[in-house]
Write a structure and sequence with these properties.
The complex is a heterodimer of chains A (282) and B (123).
Chain A (H helix, E strand, L loop, with lengths): L3 H4 L2 H4 L2 H9 L1 H18 L8 E5 L5 H8 L3 E6 L2 H9 L5 E4 L13 E7 L17 H15 E11 L4 H13 L3 E7 L8 E8 L25 H11 L8 H13 L21
Parallel strand pairs in A: 1-2, 1-4, 2-3, 4-5
Antiparallel strand pairs in A: 5-7, 6-7
Chain B lengths: L1 E2 H4 L17 E9 L6 H7 L5 H10 L15 H13 E9 L6 E5 L2 E2 L10
Antiparallel strand pairs in B: 1-3, 2-3, 3-4, 4-5
Classes of the chains: A alpha/beta (282), B alpha+beta (123).
Amino acid sequence: MSRPELQAPPEIYYGDTEAKKYTQNTRNQQIQRDMTYRALELLNLPPDQPAFLLDIGCGSGLSGEILDEEGYLWAGVDIAPSMLEVALEREVEGDLFLHDIGQGFGFRPGSFDGAISISVLQWLLNAETSHPTSSPPHRLHRFFTTLHSAMRNPSRVILQFYPSSDDQIQLITSIAQKAGFGGGIVVDYPNSKKAKKVFLCLLVGGGGSQQQVPQGLQGDEEHDSKAVFEKRRERMKSKHGKRKSVKDRDWILKKKELYRKRGKEDVPNDSKYTGRKRKTQF
Amino acid sequence: MVRLITHNLLACHAKDCNTNNFPLEFKDIQLEIREAEFNSDFLKGFMPKLEWKALVDTARQLGDTSLPLEQPEMVDDGFLKSLHHVLLEIHVEEGSMTCPNCKHVYPILNGIPNMLLAEHEIG
């Protein structure tokens, strides 16, 4: 199956059924959780200081719940109404907006102490119509410039996304830099195929010397998240028993009977040795 | 779930609508009061970001007159309590917000404002 962002625009892809499925999937929940915690870590907010955050592409509030737990106040924007509906049902604390981030934000300058975005930016890389305002560079430009002005100085924006090529990363970072952001790409577990995660870590202000782009995590991912299903597979196997051979004694007798009826010569006689396995003798 | 805290940050983002586009004006609204956890540090930290006049005007329009017209120099507990109530506990559930400049209407349904723009309004 191809990537979701290639199948349909987000507000259509995440319709009622897909929004429910996405939110109830425990694997999705776990991944979103981990990435939200990692994004908060990269955000590096001063401890014990309440902050007002922006969740870009908040969806059904999986990441918002963690912001609630951590005691942050937040506002979230998303383009899929069905996802926001699920978020309402889940009673997240933040303010929700139905908003196309490619159209730019209307927030006043300096509104937010930080912003996170989990698995969203790749959705901006497809043009839905041929209108000039729907080309990916235009939408990215609009997104980053308005986001930059909405952020407090100094602050950080952490955007996790799934690029499908280096060109996409190039495009996104160059537009972000033009919009006035510092910072760059942080890659966690760069050598792992599954655990590899790309974060765009954007810095607002701070003169460069005070704010450094953090290091990505190295090595392998922790092992506890692997091979959870082995036991279940074992159980399934024992339930159905050992698979029966198709060419058993009955089958052989049936075939021989058939050949005799057709008048074939030299069909071996039936005996107690028919269909038995030969002894392993040397 | 539009609270006044986000309303106070929100300006119109339609094309060429750059002046006089704040604050968005509430119309035909239904309110809901939901209690929230009081956090004085957050409020103190957030005070410099507020557009005070817009906040007080909107609060009065929604029927809450507990805030003084001028932002006070000294903050006491009573003031913070009423600020907390206005910012975080009043939720606008239904209605609309209108830009004072370009008159674009952002409808609010189920507590979620629809901020989508038509193609010709995108900057």
